[in-house]
Amino acid sequence: MKTLLSILLAISFLTAHGQEYKAKKYIKSIDKEELRNHLEFLASDECEGRETGKKGQKLAADYIRETLEGFDLNGSLPGIDNYFQKFNLIENRLDSFFIISNNTRLDCGIDFRMGSMKEKFAGTINSDLVFVGFGLESDYKNKDVNGKVVIYFEGQPDNLNQKSDQKTLPGYYNDTNEKLETASKHGACCAIQIKHNEQLLKAIMEAQSSMMRSKMDFPEKKLESSSNDFTSEIMVHKNDAAELLGMSNQNLEKIYDKLNRGKVTPKIPPSTMQINAYRTRNEISTENVIAYCEGGARKDELIVVVAHYDHLGKTDNEIFNGADDNASGTAALLEIAEAFSLAKKNGEGPERSILFLAVSAEEKGLLGSQYFIDHPAFPLENISVCINMDMLGRADFNHSDNPDYVYVYNSEAEDSELFNQCKVAAELTSPDLSPIYQFKGKTRLRGGSDHMSFDKAGIPVLYYYTGTHMDYHKPSDTSEKINYDNLANITKLIFTTIWEIAN
Fold this sequence. Notes:
It contains 13 helices and 17 strands. By secondary structure, the protein is α/β, with parallel strands linked by helices. The protein has a 15-stranded mixed beta sheet that branches. Helix 2 crosses helix 13, helix 7 crosses helix 8 and helix 9 packs across helix 13.
C-alpha cells in the first residue's frame, strides 16, 4: 500500500512539475514590446477612438482578426464568419439637448449632465419648474407637481423633522434614484438636482460627454422615450440653478441654509421651463472578433477570454484614444492567444478549449458580450469560466506610489477551486506583481464590464483590472502613459491562470 501511495504521489508531483515547466516556457512568449505595438495601433489616431459602428472600430476589428488569423486559430464556428460575429444595433444620436428657464439656456455636457447614461428622452417639454427643497417626501406636501418639472438640492438636510422622511435608512435620500422615484410618484415629468461642487460636476461631464452623444440597443428593443418621460435626473450647479429659478446665488444659498437647519422657507414662485432633446435614429452594424483554440481530452469544456476593443470615438476637435480603456486589455488578449497558439503548434495545447472574444459595444451598455450570450458559438452550459480584462495599463488613485498590482475579482468563494488556481498561477509568475483579490458579495464593483453579461447567465467569472484614473474616458487616455512593465506582468499572470484552469 505504501509503495502504491508513493507512486501516486510521485506521478502527481511529476504532472504538476511538468505543467509548471510548460507554463513557464510559454510565459516567455508574452513580450512587452509586442504588447506595446498592439496597444499603440489600437490607441492611435488612425483608429479614431474605435466608436462602435464607426470607421475606427472597423479598422481595429480588421487588425484583431488579422492578428488572430496569423496565429492559426480557428475563426469559423457556428455564427462566426471569418472570425467576425456580426450584429446590428439601433443608435439614437443626441444632436442637441438644452433647457431654458427665466431667459437662461443651459446645454447638456457643457452646463449640466444627465444622472444616467441610459437616458433616451427625445422631444420637447413645456411646463412649470417647481422647487421642492431636498426632494424628500415631506417637501411635496401641498404642492401640485403633476406634469411639471421639479428641482431640489442634492443630499439631505442635517435635521430631518418629518416622520415620513425619517422612516428610511440613513443616507436614503442621498440615492438619486430614490429621489427620482419620489418625484415620479407625485406625477413630476422630470427632475433637476442642484449640485454644490462645480469642479466635480465639470469633471464628470468631461468624462461622460462623449457617452452622452450616442445611445445604442438591439433593434428589437424600443429606444425612443415618449415625451414627458424621463428616466434620470438633470444635474446642474447651484449657480445655474439660481438663474433657472430667477433668483440670485445669495438668495438660493440662504434658502439652502434654512432648509438644512429644518426651518420653513418662503415659497419660490414656479418658473416656466422648456426642455428640448433632438436625436437622430441610425442603423449600426458592428462585430465581435472571435478565435477558437480547441482543447484535448476536455475539449467540450470552454474557457472564454474577453476584452472589449471599442471606445468612445471622437468629437470635432478631439479623439478619445482609449489606450487604457481598453486597448490594454485587447493587447493582453492578443498576446495570450499567441502563447496558447504556440503551445498548440508544439503539441502541448490546453486540455480545455479556449475561446478568445474581443467584443464591441461595451461602452454602449455591454451589448457585444450580451449578444454573444444570446447567440453563443457553443452551448452556455459548456462554458466553465469567463476571464475578462478591462483597463490593465494604469495605476488608480490608490496606487500612484505602488503601481505593481492588479485587482482580481472572483465570482466564486475563497475556498473554491477557481481561487486556488489563481493563487497557484500567482506563485508561477512575477514576484513583483501583487494581486489584490476581491470576491462577489464582499466587494462592490463600481461601474461594469463584460464579465457581468456572463455572471448574469450563471457563468463563473474572473475580472482583471487596475482601476480608474484621472484620464478615464478623456482624450488624455493615451498610449505613452501606459505602464508597459506592469501590463506585461499582468498579462503573464492571466495567461498562467488560464493555463492552470485549462489543464
